[in-house]
Amino acid sequence: MEEIFNNVFIDGDKLYTKNLISGEKVYGEKLIDYKGKELREWNPRRSKLAAAIMKGYRELPFKKDSKILYLGASTGTTVSHVSDIVEIGKIFSVEISERSMRQFLKLSEMRENVYPILGDASRPNLYSGLLEQVDFIYQDVAQKHQQEILVKNSVYLKKRGIVFYCVKARSIDSIRAPEEIFKEEIKNLEKYFNVIKTIDLSPYEKDHIMIIASLR
Ligand SMILES: C[S@@+](CC[C@H](N)C(=O)[O-])C[C@H]1O[C@@H](n2cnc3c(N)ncnc32)[C@H](O)[C@@H]1O
Protein backbone atom coordinates (compact mmCIF):
# COMPACT_ATOMS: atom_id res chain seq x y z
CA MET A 1 0.00 0.00 0.00
CA GLU A 2 1.35 3.44 -0.94
CA GLU A 3 -0.04 6.93 -0.19
CA ILE A 4 0.21 8.71 -3.56
CA PHE A 5 -1.55 11.97 -2.64
CA ASN A 6 -2.94 13.38 0.59
CA ASN A 7 -5.32 10.67 1.83
CA VAL A 8 -5.20 8.68 -1.45
CA PHE A 9 -3.78 5.17 -1.29
CA ILE A 10 -3.04 2.60 -3.96
CA ASP A 11 -2.46 -1.11 -3.56
CA GLY A 12 -2.02 -2.90 -6.90
CA ASP A 13 -5.26 -2.39 -8.81
CA LYS A 14 -7.14 -1.04 -5.80
CA LEU A 15 -7.50 2.62 -4.96
CA TYR A 16 -8.68 4.07 -1.64
CA THR A 17 -9.24 7.35 0.15
CA LYS A 18 -9.04 7.81 3.90
CA ASN A 19 -12.61 8.03 5.13
CA LEU A 20 -13.44 11.45 6.53
CA ILE A 21 -16.55 10.09 8.24
CA SER A 22 -15.64 6.94 10.07
CA GLY A 23 -17.89 3.95 9.45
CA GLU A 24 -19.92 5.68 6.72
CA LYS A 25 -20.18 4.27 3.20
CA VAL A 26 -21.50 6.39 0.32
CA TYR A 27 -22.23 3.96 -2.51
CA GLY A 28 -21.76 0.50 -1.07
CA GLU A 29 -17.96 0.65 -1.33
CA LYS A 30 -15.69 -1.52 0.81
CA LEU A 31 -14.16 -0.11 4.02
CA ILE A 32 -10.82 -1.52 5.14
CA ASP A 33 -8.44 -0.89 7.99
CA TYR A 34 -4.88 0.12 7.13
CA LYS A 35 -2.51 0.85 10.00
CA GLY A 36 -5.33 2.19 12.13
CA LYS A 37 -6.80 4.31 9.32
CA GLU A 38 -10.17 3.55 7.78
CA LEU A 39 -9.92 3.55 3.98
CA ARG A 40 -12.80 3.58 1.48
CA GLU A 41 -12.35 1.77 -1.81
CA TRP A 42 -12.55 4.19 -4.77
CA ASN A 43 -14.04 2.48 -7.79
CA PRO A 44 -12.56 3.64 -11.15
CA ARG A 45 -15.64 2.36 -12.96
CA ARG A 46 -17.82 4.68 -10.90
CA SER A 47 -15.56 7.74 -10.81
CA LYS A 48 -13.62 9.31 -13.68
CA LEU A 49 -11.07 10.87 -11.34
CA ALA A 50 -10.28 7.40 -9.96
CA ALA A 51 -10.06 6.12 -13.55
CA ALA A 52 -7.56 8.89 -14.40
CA ILE A 53 -5.42 7.92 -11.39
CA MET A 54 -5.59 4.25 -12.32
CA LYS A 55 -4.44 5.26 -15.80
CA GLY A 56 -1.29 6.70 -14.24
CA TYR A 57 -2.20 10.31 -13.39
CA ARG A 58 0.10 11.27 -10.53
CA GLU A 59 0.05 15.07 -10.40
CA LEU A 60 -3.21 15.65 -8.54
CA PRO A 61 -2.80 19.20 -7.19
CA PHE A 62 -5.62 19.09 -4.59
CA LYS A 63 -4.48 20.21 -1.16
CA LYS A 64 -6.05 19.75 2.26
CA ASP A 65 -7.58 23.22 2.09
CA SER A 66 -8.38 23.46 -1.65
CA LYS A 67 -11.61 25.04 -2.84
CA ILE A 68 -13.29 23.28 -5.72
CA LEU A 69 -16.30 24.03 -7.90
CA TYR A 70 -17.73 20.65 -8.89
CA LEU A 71 -20.21 20.71 -11.78
CA GLY A 72 -22.43 17.64 -12.17
CA ALA A 73 -22.27 16.27 -8.63
CA SER A 74 -24.96 13.61 -9.22
CA THR A 75 -25.45 11.59 -6.01
CA GLY A 76 -21.91 12.32 -4.87
CA THR A 77 -19.77 9.28 -5.66
CA THR A 78 -16.72 11.29 -6.78
CA VAL A 79 -17.48 14.29 -4.56
CA SER A 80 -17.30 12.02 -1.52
CA HIS A 81 -13.73 10.95 -2.38
CA VAL A 82 -12.70 14.52 -3.18
CA SER A 83 -14.18 15.43 0.22
CA ASP A 84 -11.89 12.81 1.83
CA ILE A 85 -8.90 14.45 0.10
CA VAL A 86 -9.60 18.16 0.73
CA GLU A 87 -10.43 17.59 4.39
CA ILE A 88 -10.59 21.24 5.43
CA GLY A 89 -11.33 22.66 1.96
CA LYS A 90 -14.66 23.42 0.32
CA ILE A 91 -16.43 21.64 -2.53
CA PHE A 92 -19.16 23.77 -4.06
CA SER A 93 -21.22 21.07 -5.76
CA VAL A 94 -23.71 21.94 -8.48
CA GLU A 95 -26.34 19.45 -9.62
CA ILE A 96 -29.40 20.11 -11.78
CA SER A 97 -31.42 16.99 -10.96
CA GLU A 98 -33.62 17.35 -7.90
CA ARG A 99 -33.73 13.59 -7.53
CA SER A 100 -29.93 13.23 -7.41
CA MET A 101 -29.71 16.28 -5.15
CA ARG A 102 -32.06 14.68 -2.63
CA GLN A 103 -29.57 11.84 -2.13
CA PHE A 104 -26.62 14.21 -2.37
CA LEU A 105 -28.00 16.26 0.52
CA LYS A 106 -27.64 13.28 2.87
CA LEU A 107 -23.94 13.17 2.02
CA SER A 108 -23.46 16.90 2.38
CA GLU A 109 -25.17 16.92 5.77
CA MET A 110 -22.50 14.55 7.03
CA ARG A 111 -19.51 16.18 5.31
CA GLU A 112 -18.81 19.73 6.38
CA ASN A 113 -16.60 20.50 3.37
CA VAL A 114 -19.41 19.77 0.86
CA TYR A 115 -21.65 22.70 -0.14
CA PRO A 116 -24.64 21.53 -2.21
CA ILE A 117 -26.08 23.81 -4.90
CA LEU A 118 -29.25 22.77 -6.73
CA GLY A 119 -28.84 24.61 -10.01
CA ASP A 120 -28.06 24.65 -13.69
CA ALA A 121 -24.33 24.90 -14.42
CA SER A 122 -25.11 26.64 -17.70
CA ARG A 123 -26.48 29.58 -15.67
CA PRO A 124 -23.63 30.21 -13.23
CA ASN A 125 -24.71 33.76 -12.41
CA LEU A 126 -27.71 32.28 -10.55
CA TYR A 127 -25.47 30.72 -7.90
CA SER A 128 -22.86 33.47 -7.64
CA GLY A 129 -23.90 34.26 -4.05
CA LEU A 130 -23.41 30.65 -2.94
CA LEU A 131 -19.71 30.19 -3.56
CA GLU A 132 -16.23 31.69 -3.34
CA GLN A 133 -13.43 31.91 -5.90
CA VAL A 134 -11.99 28.42 -6.31
CA ASP A 135 -8.63 26.79 -6.99
CA PHE A 136 -10.14 24.10 -9.22
CA ILE A 137 -13.17 23.35 -11.35
CA TYR A 138 -14.12 19.71 -11.87
CA GLN A 139 -16.76 19.28 -14.55
CA ASP A 140 -18.60 16.07 -15.38
CA VAL A 141 -21.98 17.08 -16.80
CA ALA A 142 -22.03 14.94 -19.99
CA GLN A 143 -23.84 17.57 -22.03
CA LYS A 144 -23.60 18.68 -25.64
CA HIS A 145 -22.63 22.26 -24.82
CA GLN A 146 -20.42 21.34 -21.91
CA GLN A 147 -17.42 23.36 -23.02
CA GLU A 148 -19.51 26.51 -23.01
CA ILE A 149 -20.58 25.59 -19.47
CA LEU A 150 -16.95 25.25 -18.39
CA VAL A 151 -15.94 28.58 -19.92
CA LYS A 152 -18.89 30.39 -18.28
CA ASN A 153 -18.01 28.94 -14.87
CA SER A 154 -14.35 29.89 -15.17
CA VAL A 155 -15.28 33.34 -13.82
CA TYR A 156 -15.16 31.60 -10.45
CA LEU A 157 -11.66 30.25 -11.00
CA LYS A 158 -8.70 31.95 -9.33
CA LYS A 159 -5.76 33.12 -11.41
CA ARG A 160 -3.74 30.08 -12.56
CA GLY A 161 -6.61 27.83 -11.44
CA ILE A 162 -6.90 24.35 -12.90
CA VAL A 163 -9.84 22.60 -14.54
CA PHE A 164 -10.62 18.90 -14.76
CA TYR A 165 -12.88 18.51 -17.75
CA CYS A 166 -14.53 15.15 -18.47
CA VAL A 167 -15.50 14.63 -22.08
CA LYS A 168 -17.90 11.89 -23.14
CA ALA A 169 -17.75 11.72 -26.93
CA ARG A 170 -21.31 10.46 -27.33
CA SER A 171 -22.80 13.35 -25.35
CA ILE A 172 -21.34 15.77 -27.85
CA ASP A 173 -22.02 13.84 -31.05
CA SER A 174 -23.21 10.24 -31.34
CA ILE A 175 -22.15 9.83 -34.97
CA ARG A 176 -18.68 11.32 -35.39
CA ALA A 177 -15.54 9.41 -34.41
CA PRO A 178 -14.59 10.03 -30.75
CA GLU A 179 -10.97 10.93 -31.72
CA GLU A 180 -12.25 13.68 -33.98
CA ILE A 181 -14.51 15.05 -31.23
CA PHE A 182 -11.68 14.97 -28.66
CA LYS A 183 -9.32 16.80 -31.04
CA GLU A 184 -11.87 19.54 -31.59
CA GLU A 185 -12.63 19.85 -27.86
CA ILE A 186 -8.92 20.30 -27.12
CA LYS A 187 -8.46 22.82 -29.93
CA ASN A 188 -11.42 24.92 -28.76
CA LEU A 189 -10.40 24.68 -25.12
CA GLU A 190 -6.97 26.08 -25.96
CA LYS A 191 -8.59 29.45 -26.70
CA TYR A 192 -9.16 29.88 -22.96
CA PHE A 193 -6.91 27.37 -21.22
CA ASN A 194 -3.43 25.84 -21.45
CA VAL A 195 -3.96 22.11 -21.79
CA ILE A 196 -1.69 20.29 -19.34
CA LYS A 197 -2.73 16.72 -19.89
CA THR A 198 -5.27 14.53 -21.68
CA ILE A 199 -6.09 11.13 -20.21
CA ASP A 200 -7.94 8.42 -22.09
CA LEU A 201 -10.19 6.78 -19.48
CA SER A 202 -10.60 3.40 -21.19
CA PRO A 203 -11.13 0.62 -20.20
CA TYR A 204 -12.89 2.16 -17.16
CA GLU A 205 -15.01 4.49 -19.33
CA LYS A 206 -15.37 3.92 -23.08
CA ASP A 207 -14.88 6.92 -25.39
CA HIS A 208 -14.19 9.30 -22.52
CA ILE A 209 -11.22 11.52 -21.87
CA MET A 210 -10.30 13.84 -19.05
CA ILE A 211 -8.60 17.08 -20.00
CA ILE A 212 -6.61 18.88 -17.32
CA ALA A 213 -5.89 22.51 -18.13
CA SER A 214 -4.97 25.78 -16.49
CA LEU A 215 -6.61 29.14 -17.00
CA ARG A 216 -4.70 31.36 -19.42
C1 LIG B 1 -21.99 11.65 -15.42
S1 LIG B 1 -23.02 12.30 -14.17
C2 LIG B 1 -21.88 12.85 -12.94
C3 LIG B 1 -21.24 11.76 -12.10
C4 LIG B 1 -20.44 12.35 -10.95
N1 LIG B 1 -19.57 13.41 -11.42
C5 LIG B 1 -19.60 11.33 -10.22
O1 LIG B 1 -18.51 11.02 -10.71
O2 LIG B 1 -20.01 10.87 -9.15
C6 LIG B 1 -23.53 13.83 -14.83
C7 LIG B 1 -24.38 14.66 -13.90
O3 LIG B 1 -24.44 15.99 -14.41
C8 LIG B 1 -25.72 16.51 -14.14
N2 LIG B 1 -25.95 17.65 -15.04
C9 LIG B 1 -26.22 17.61 -16.37
N3 LIG B 1 -26.39 18.86 -16.85
C10 LIG B 1 -26.21 19.70 -15.81
C11 LIG B 1 -26.27 21.11 -15.67
N4 LIG B 1 -26.53 21.90 -16.71
N5 LIG B 1 -26.05 21.64 -14.44
C12 LIG B 1 -25.77 20.85 -13.37
N6 LIG B 1 -25.73 19.50 -13.45
C13 LIG B 1 -25.93 18.94 -14.64
C14 LIG B 1 -26.63 15.32 -14.36
O4 LIG B 1 -27.89 15.50 -13.73
C15 LIG B 1 -25.81 14.18 -13.78
O5 LIG B 1 -26.13 13.98 -12.42
TrEMBL record:
InterPro entries: Fibrillarin (IPR000692), SAM-dependent_MTases_sf (IPR029063). SMART domains: Fibrillarin (SM01206). GO terms for molecular function: histone H2AQ104 methyltransferase activity; RNA binding; rRNA methyltransferase activity. GO terms for biological process: box C/D sno(s)RNA 3'-end processing; tRNA processing. It is an enzyme of class 2 (transferase). S-adenosyl-L-methionine binds at T77, T78, E95, I96, D120, A121, D140, V141, A142, Q143. Keywords: Methyltransferase, RNA-binding, rRNA processing, Transferase, tRNA processing. It comes from the Archaea. Interacts with nop5. Component of box C/D small ribonucleoprotein (sRNP) particles that contain rpl7ae, FlpA and nop5, plus a guide RNA. PANTHER family: FIBRILLARIN, RRNA 2-O-METHYLTRANSFERASE FIBRILLARIN. Involved in pre-rRNA and tRNA processing. Utilizes the methyl donor S-adenosyl-L-methionine to catalyze the site-specific 2'-hydroxyl methylation of ribose moieties in rRNA and tRNA. Site specificity is provided by a guide RNA that base pairs with the substrate. Methylation occurs at a characteristic distance from the sequence involved in base pairing with the guide RNA. This is Fibrillarin-like rRNA/tRNA 2'-O-methyltransferase. It comes from Candidatus Methanofastidiosum methylothiophilum.
